Each structure stands twice: as structure tokens, then as C-alpha cells.
Amino acid sequence: MAEPTDDTGVRVRVRGRELSLAISEEHAVRLKSLAERIVREPFTKRPWAELAFFLVSGGLAGLGLAFVGATMVTGVVLAITFFGLAVLALSVRSARGIGGWQRGLARAMLGESVEDPEPFAGRRGFLGWLQSSLRDRVGWRAVAYLAIKVPWTFLGVLVAVSLWWDAFACLIRPLAGPGGGGPQVWGLAGSIFPGSSFWFQSSGFFHEVGIFILGAVFLFAAPWVMRGFVNVDRLLVRNLLGPDPMATRVRTLEQARTQTVDASAATLRRIERDLHDGTQAQLVALAMRLGMAKEKLEDTDRVDLDRVRELVEEAHRGAKEAIAELRDIARGIHPPALDIGLEGALATLAARSAVPTEISLDLRSRPTPAIEAIAYFCVAELLANVAQHAQASRASVSCAQQGTWLRLVVRDDGRGGAELSRVGSSSSGLTGLTDRVHAVDGRLHLVSPPGGPTVVTVDLPLSA
Amino acid sequence: MVGALRVAIAEDSAILRDGLVQLLVDRGFAITGAVGDPEALRSSVAQNPPDVAVIDIRMPPTFTDEGLRLALDLRSRHEGLGILLFSQYIETRYAAELLADDAAGIGYLLKDRVADVSDFVEALERVAIGGTALDPEVVTQLLGATRRTDTLSVLTPREREVLALMAEGRSNAAIASALVVSEGAVEKHVANIFAKLNLPVSENDHRRVLAVLRFLES
Predict the structure, then answer these.
(1) A interface with B, Cβ–Cβ below 8 Å
(2) Does some domain include residue A2?
(3) How many CA atoms lie within 13 A of A306 on its CB side?
(4) Out of A273, A280, A288, whose CB is closest to B19?
(5) Whole-angstrom Cα distance, residue B182 to residue B190?
(6) Coil, strand, or helix at residue B133?
(7) Which of A122, A168, A181, B68 would disulfide-bridge A176, Cβ 3.0–4.6 Å?
(8) Which fold has domain B146-217?
(9) What is the CATH number of domain B6-135?
(10) Which of A221-235, A339-353, B144-158 has the weakest average pLDDT?
(11) Which segments of chain B belong to CATH 3.40.50.2300?
(12) Signed CA dihedral, A366, A372, A378, A380: sign only
């Protein structure tokens, strides 16, 4: 037989055989571990914690719903009076509090990691408090939680808790000796075998063994049925007692807006600095040289023509430098290349890059101008980083549309080791880019192990 | 002039610093130091004291008002040292702070003024010998910022022009040549201004500036 690495066909075949063997072995291992788990499960902590949670939180939710329901009905009945509204507000506020306890129970007993919702922000004055309370989304969501949770608990007690009970009822039945006695079964087992059925009434060795086996089956099934109920409860806690998705969204947007404002302020500051230190200084020096030249020419008695020529030459050079600097600054504000579209602009960037750069473009629809600008500056900044820090010999840029997203990937074969925090010492570094990208709900991902290669992936929505 | 006036320069833009050195050497000044940050100027002035220091306001490390702090510090350490602050922008607050106790030997000019080489050199010389040189822009801002525009309305347009030039730190002779009138006419205007605005009469040029500014600031 050929060496597996020599011939692809052989390797595949050989592998295929090994693979099929591996799968059946794997199956056996899996089945074994599943069986072990089922047998062990009733004797671990988790199902008991879940059972305890279901009973405790269910009981408290029942009390909570009774209180909230009673106050709410009272409030609605009295709603025509001011007092009714106050009772209603109190009801919503207490639902929020009860929701908090439920959340605490889920955390303590189930280890559920659900965040606190935004704290209640009451406005000034009694009327303000009333209004904020009645419009408290967190409170109303807690009401909804209680309203779903309580019937769910009833169902759970009937199906899952009863299963636990029946398991033990059946298991200890044989101990009670022939002729009955011991706890009665109810719930599922009770409905399958009505209370007076011969299974439980008649005695006899086989019956006792049968009941014991049934109890064992119940014992091993109960944790899983219970878990199903508790998992639904977890979902309820996460979705109704956690932070309001709308409020979270608003907070994210607020953060993004702050970042945008900061980023544009930083950009303006950078432009001002560039103008101040660069162009303005250039122009002042230029005016100074021309002023000197002018005064030398006015001194008609003895014009030092050589000196004047020198001054004019310096001024001429300064003017050209100022023009070049101004052009760079203007390009930093809005790259003119973008007017012809992102593809052309990126191609220009790649062509101008100090490191040989390959570019691949796959855009079907044109992104909005804001996204085009961010994409352009990302690539410009990343290529500048490659040239400055990476010691790379080649780089590549790919820009592809994926659904409603634009994915930019800039890759280099340099020494790697780039970090978001360290490289971003200036506002124009990687951190600045991250801010820009986040501002439009985009993502920037950096992979740069020491020794390279560095791959930066930027995902931007096509429109923002 | 007994010997060349000695000038120290603190300016972080190399282009401008070199240009200034070139211009001042060309005009017969002696450069005691041309540096790019406040600390360097401090040690330069301590080692080789100049008659006047030309200081950029925005310098490292924070690029805000390092030059102004430096100027105030140098003033308190070296008596009689002239300071010419040099900036791309005019900030009235800086002018007020700088002129707070004494306008003698103080100048505050826009960088653009170097383009008119003679005016610039003249202003520098004035500051070096204890006079005052305020940028017309500073004066305009101070005139504009003052809430006493009502009071200023008692002045004739000509008197306002004279007031502005006076505030820049110019002598009567200089004002006369700027406005193309006789020195006698200027003296008459000045006397009228002092009378109308209740300013104390004074001979020294920078005292006049101080009086004008005090009046405008109040």
C-alpha cells in the first residue's frame, strides 16, 4: 500500500475507513457517557437546585402576582380618581421590585448571569414620579413575567414536580410492605394508573418489583423534565427581567454618537494642528522672505541682487512646499479620489503605498459616502501602519460586499505584534480607527501574532 | 546704537525659527539663542541674557500657552528683559494677562507681521528698550471687547485712530507719520483724548499705552 501522504486517493480511502471505524467507536463512547450521565444525574447538585428554584421562585411569584394583580385591579377600578393612578403606579413599581428578587433568585440558585436593567429614573415631584412609574418599561415587563411565570409554575408542578414525587412514592412503596400504605402517587403516574388501580392495591412480589422499576425510571427522567421547565423560566428571566433591549439599543447608540462626536472633534483638532504647524508657518516664512527681498530691492543705492535672488528662491520653494502640504491636509479632510468611487480610491491608495500592495475588489452596490470615507481612511491608515511599523515586504487589501456589509481585509507579511492599545497612542492610530468604525456600528478585528502576519478585518454596514 | 541688540528666540517651527534668525542677522541683531521649547530658552536666557526674547505662544509639550507662562516667568526673573510674544492668533485674555502689571518692554504681535520687515524690526527695537508693541489686532479686539463703546463715542473718528495707534505703543512722531499729519496735530488729538476719557497725562510712551489699556479694560 502506498504511503498515505503520497497519493491523495489512497489517503482519502484509508482515512475514510479509519473514519468510519472512528465514528462507530465514537458512537459507543457517546452512548456510554450519556447513559452514565443519566444514571448519575439525580445524585448531582444541579437537578435539586433547579427543583428548589422552581418551587421557591414559583411560590414567591405567586405571592407577587397576587399582590400586583390585586393592586392593579384596585388601581384600574379607581382609575377615574387620582388615587387609582397612584395605586397603579405603586403596582408597577412593586412589580419591578419583585422582578428584582426573581432575578436575584435566578442568579443565586441557577447561576444565571442576567444583568440588572437600567435603574428607575423618577422625575421630580409627585406627578413626575407617577408618570415615570406608569411608563416604566422594566416594571411592566416584570408584570408580564409574573403573569407568564405563575401559570407556568402550575403546569410545572403538575408535570415535573409530580414526577419527582411519584419517583419516590414508587421507590419506597415496596418498603411499606404488602397491602398498600405509603405515599400515594399523583400527577402523571396517578393519571396513568388511577389511584385504586390494581398495580398499587394488589400485592405480590412482581408487582412490587414493577413499581420499584417504575420509580427508578421516574427518578432518572425527572431531572430532565424539570430542566425543560426551568430552561423556559431562564428564558423568561433573561428576556423579561434583564435590561430592556430598546434601552440597551438607545444606550449603544448614545455611546456611538459620543464616539462620533469625539472622533470628529479629534479630526478637527488634527486638521487645525496640521494647518497651524505646517501651512501657516510655511506661509509666514514665505511672506517674511518676500518682505526681506522687497526691502532689499527698495534700497536702490546698492541692491544686493544675489541675496535677493536667494531670498526669492527660498520663498519659491516655500510656496511649493506649502501647496503640497495644503493638498495633503485637504486630502485628509475629503479624499478627492472618493469622488470617482471607493474602488478607484482604494486602487489609488494601494498604488501609492510604500509596500507593494495587491488589491482585490468585489462591490456590487455603492456604499453611502460616509461609509466610503471610513473605508478609505481605514485602508489609508492601515497601509500607513504597514509601511511604518510592520517591516513587511508585501501587503494585500481586499474589499468585498457580503450581504448588506462591506468587509475590508488588510493583510501584511510583516513582523506582527501590533496591538490596539499600543499602536493607538495617537488619535490617528488603530484606536482612532476603531472609534470611527464603532461609530457606524461596524467592527474592527486585529490578528497580529508576534512574527506576523498581521490581518486587520473591518466590517462596515453598507449604509449608515 | 551701542552695539547690536541681542535677541533670543523660542519658536517650535523650524522653518520660522530659521527664517527669523536669517532676518534678524540680516538686520544686524545678535542672536544669543534660537531654540524650540520653553526649557531651552530658560537656560539660554540664564546663560547668555539677551535684551529681548521673541517667544512663540504655542510650544511643546501641550501646545497651548507655554509661551505665555514662559514670558511671565522670565519677566519675574530677569528685570528689564524685553518680551515679544509671537502668535498665529490673538487672544485678548493673553494680552490682558501679560499687561497686567506693566506694559514696559512688552510686545504681542501676530506672526504675519514679520512680512513687513521694517515694522517688525521697529517693534522689536521698541520692546528691547522698554517700550510697547501691541498688534493692531490686539488693539481692535480690546477696543471691540470693551463695554465702554458709549464712552468711546465721545471721540471723533480721527481721535479713535490716534487712540488705536497709541494703544499699539507708538510715539506721537510715529502716529503722525502713520496718519500723514504733523506731530503738533497728533499732540492736540492726544491731549483731547486724555481729557475726554479722563486719562492721567504721561510722557513716557508705554505709560500712555498702559493708561489707554487700563481705561479700555475697566
Answers:
(1) 273, 276-277, 280-282, 284-285, 287-292, 294-295, 318
(2) no
(3) 0
(4) A288
(5) 13
(6) strand
(7) A181
(8) Arc Repressor Mutant, subunit A (1.10.10)
(9) 3.40.50.2300
(10) B144-158
(11) 6-135
(12) positive
In a domain, A296, yes or no: yes
Length of chain A measured in residues: 464
Mean pLDDT score across all residues of chain B: 85
- Only one residue has cell 479620489, namely A337
**HSE of A35, CA atoms in CB hemisphere, 13 A:** 6
Which residue stretches of B27-77 are H helix? 38-47, 66-77
- Entry pTM: 0.57
Q: What is the ipTM of this complex?
A: 0.78
- Tell which of A288, A304, A313, A320 to mutate to test the B interface (max B CBs under 10 Å): A288
Asked if A325 and A281 count as a contact pair (C-beta separation under 8 A), the reply is no
- Would you call B88 and A280 a contact, using CB atoms and an 8 Å cutoff? yes
- The partner residues of A456 in beta bridges, in order of sequence, read A410, A446
- The Cα–Cα gap between A171 and A189 comes to 13
Looking only at Cα atoms, what is the longest distance across chain B? 51
- AA identity, residue A198: F
Handedness of CA A360, A363, A366, A371 (dihedral sign): negative
To the nearest whole Å, the CA of B199 is away from the closest chain A CA by 37
Q: Are A346 and A426 in contact (CB under 8 A)?
A: no
Write out pLDDT tens, residues A411-437.
998 888 877 754 434 434 677 788 778
